[in-house]
Amino acid sequence: MIRLRPRQESRIPVEAECISPDAFSGKSAAQVEDMKILWGNKTKRLVDLFEVVEDPAEPNEIVVDGDVRFVKHIGAKMSMGRVIVNGDAGMHLGRGMAGGEIIVNGDAGDWLGTEMVGGLIRVKGNVGNLAGSAYRGSKSGMKGGMIVIEGGAGDELGELMEGGTIAVKGNVQSFAGALMSGGAIVCFGGLGGRPGAGMTNGTLLAFSQPRLLPTFRYARTYKPTFIKPILEELRKQGLPVEDRQIEGLYDAYEGDLACDGKGKILVWKD
Q1: Among 159, 152, 80, which residue's Cα sits nearest to residue 113?
Q2: Mind listing the pLDDT tens digit for each residue in 22-79?
Q3: Contact 99, 116 (CB under 8 A)
Q4: Are 160 and 179 in contact, with CB atoms under 8 Å apart?
Q5: Does the model's pTM come out above 0.85?
Q6: Are 193 and 211 a contacting pair, CB within 8 Å?
């Protein structure tokens, strides 16, 4: 295990893609200290920002102790191991992640899990905008893996999402699932305006009645069996899934009809 402790509270943006189990694997503490980061417009060593402590007991694990809300790209493209942030984390956390686990015991910034294809991200607090989405100009957002958010989420959650699961315990802001073509978004709190705008496939699952666009039409009320394994897995992850939600009835709305979409917005009938 490598433990990182911020040496100072910096408000200068830091880009630190090197903070990843893949990059740290097989390296000594001295080698980790010498890895390069971009601190503002200056290239520096990781040791300039963090105290580095090595513990061989837990290989392929990184623990960051402290507020790193201005440190971007932690866990970018990681494929194995675990990253634990004991504090707030910055933008682009888990970008392009393919495997392993990231746990944030605090809040996380915008672009969480952008274009991830595998692995698990758990955030105990709130997240910013565009979690699980695609970067501007890209055609594909999240394709696999799971994001579990115990707080709330900002706008455009899961934009251009193609696969995987995003679950939010709190409220979600506008345009959740916009342009999505696969995967599932599960919202236990309030679902903001214009959910599923432009979606062509995939599932939005809501436990309170959202305000839907007129391009979604009511299809039927039924028991969708395909959501059972999703909800059972989310219950294993500690989310408040009840048996009556797993076995209950849902109103199904299909759309977005403005783009001949085959997506589903399922609303639980309590």
Answers
A1: 159
A2: 999 989 999 999 999 999 999 999 999 999 998 877 889 999 999 999 999 999 999 9
A3: no
A4: yes
A5: yes
A6: yes
